[in-house]
Amino acid sequence: MMILSSAITDNFGLRELALCAVLLIIVAYAKRLRDYMDYWKNQNVPYEEFSFFRGPISRIAREPFHEIDMKRLKKHGKIFGSFEGPTPTLVVADPDLVKLVLVKYFQELPDRRHVTLNDPILDNMMNLVGADRWRKLRPAASPAFSTGKLRKMNSIIHDCARITTQHLLQIAEEGKDFDPKEFFGHYTLDVIARSAFGARLESRSAQANEFVARLHTAFAIKPTFPLILILYAWILFPFMLKLHIFSPDTFLFLKNFCLNVIEERKQSSVKHQDFLQLMVDAQDRGLQGSAEGSQDAEDELCNLGTEQTVEKAVSTKALSKEEALSQCVSFFIAGQDATSSVLAYTFYLLAVNPDVQQRLREEVDGCFKVDVRFNEENVGSIRPYSYLPFGAGPRNCIGRRLALQALKLCLLHIVHSVELVRTENTRCYEAAIKLRGVKKSSKAAEVILEYWDSAWT
After folding, report:
1. Is the Cβ–Cβ distance between 398 and 142 less than 8 Å?
2. Ramachandran quadrant class, 450 (left: phi over 0; alpha: psi -120 to 50; beta: rest)
3. In Å, how far from its chain's centre is CA 24?
4. With contact defined as beta carbons under 8 Å apart, do 360 and 413 qualify?
5. What would the mean pLDDT of 379-398 be, rounded to a whole number?
6. Residues in Cβ contact with 387 at an 8 Å cutoff, skipping those fewer than 6 apart
7. Element (H, E) at 99
8. CA-based nearest residue to 136, from 399, 265, 322
């Protein structure tokens, strides 16, 4: 063997051997790439051709996610293969199959897309962790969103909605243009701070204004071409890069705020019954017992057939400092921007559709004049699992009912008190909504308010 090795070295030289090794590596990589690109073809599944520069990730700089997915759906059908970096991905748009994946076969498919952001706080968020850690975190937070706890929060949310309505009435009297997105940032911040953290931020105070401004910048990162390249590099080498999906300054601000309220709560002798107290208790001694849960009429209306399972909490280990802090930070990140965006977009739609606004107002006033439920005429026409704004199954959004409660109560108070009217600055849908990446309302959705005198107060 030594003679043969020496002969090969003498005949070819180290340079030739190195070249051969490189060629072998290139051939092996090319074969692996070909196998990867033919993955769905070999599975006999319709698929979207692999493309580095024309794939869905590169298109988010020009189009919103939902339009990209709709185009792919029309082209390839309800089930098709795709590629996300080094991972073949199956896209499922059939409601019956979605139900099977999210509910019936949850035990076999409990994990979500694996995401590593290389940050101890972001990587511990409930919606990003793997199944084993999710089973530890979810029971610790679930009792804060039980039916009984939400009933207790009702008066807090009503109070926040009344304060918001008073500010809107002042705007209506002054006849100023109205930017719903910025305005409702204060409302959602107030609801989250008071109901989940027991902290009262005076609406439109200097502290509240700074909070809303910072939370707004958290989602201000635009999907530019350099960011797309960074995203591709992160997908290929997640262990080497720290991806900033939020503004670093805003993230640090939220982290410090949550650290402060956690420390203040630990030093306080008063026991609260809110989300923050659950995180403090879970950090100190873990969770014992079972989470409250019930499948009521509101669940059925909001789930639209999702068959949310009542969670059974088991004895768990205490949460680490990073795990508890992470859930507090994610509460603000997940709740504030999404809820204010929905309210802003709803107000825009009501302003440009005055007939629908009038009908809504009549139904709201009618419900307060007589003891009847809201009209549910179109609930039965919505096919279950065809629209999942909060996800479905055991890993659905934990704050779903709180968000819907805050949305409905705010709309109830405001539609009763003011009328929304479009102005010269109220644009069409394309201008009112930022059509890149995640769809969000913009300042082009401004409306003007007019005082509406109703019989009840």
Report:
1. yes
2. beta
3. 45
4. no
5. 83
6. 304
7. helix 95-99
8. 322
CA distances in angstroms from 295 to 106, 191, 316, listed in the order given: 19, 24, 24
**Are the C-beta atoms of residues 172 and 416 closer than 8 Å to each other?**
no
Helix, coil or strand: residue 4: helix
Q: In what order do the strands lie in the sheet with 177-178?
A: 177-178, 447-451, 418-422
| Residue from 251, 214, 280 nearest 117 by CA | 251
CA dist., res. 292 & res. 145, Å (int): 8
Q: How many residues does the chain have?
A: 457
Quick one: which of 197, 129, 205, 153 has its CA closest to 403?
Answer: 153
262-292 burial code (b ≥16 CB/10 A, e <16): beebeeeeeeeebbbbbbbbbbeeebeeebb
Transcribe 410-443 into DSSP letters. Answer: HHHHHHHHEEEEE-TT---HHHHEE-SBS-EE-G
Predicted confidence (pLDDT) per residue in 236-274, tens digit: 665 555 556 666 777 888 888 888 888 888 888 777 878
Structure tokens at 12: 């070819």
Integer-rounded Cα radius of gyration of the chain: 26
- Residue 190 · residue 201 · CB < 8 Å: yes
If pLDDT is split at 50, 70 and 90, which confidence band does 380 have? low
Q: Which amino acid is at 262?
A: I
Distance CA 238, CA 230 (A): 11
Are 413 and 164 a contacting pair, CB within 8 Å?
A: yes
- Helices 147-174 and 400-417 cross at an angle (nearest 10°) of 30
CATH of domain 123-451: 1.10.630.10
* Boundaries of every domain in the chain: 1-37, 123-451
Read off the tokens for 88. 């073949």
Q: How far apart are CA 115 and CA 130, in angstroms?
A: 9
pLDDT at 450: 56
Token representation of residue 204: 């439109």
Q: Is the dihedral of CA 101, 246, 442, 161 positive or negative?
A: positive
Which tokens in the block code for residue 446?
A: 């401004």
**Beta carbons within 10 angstroms of residue 455's beta carbon:** 8
Catalogue the E-assigned strands of 46-155: 79-84, 87-92
- Tell me the torsion sign for CA atoms 334, 339, 344, 348: positive
pTM (2 decimals)? Answer: 0.75
Task: Take residue 390 and report the two structure tokens written for it.
Answer: 């909060």
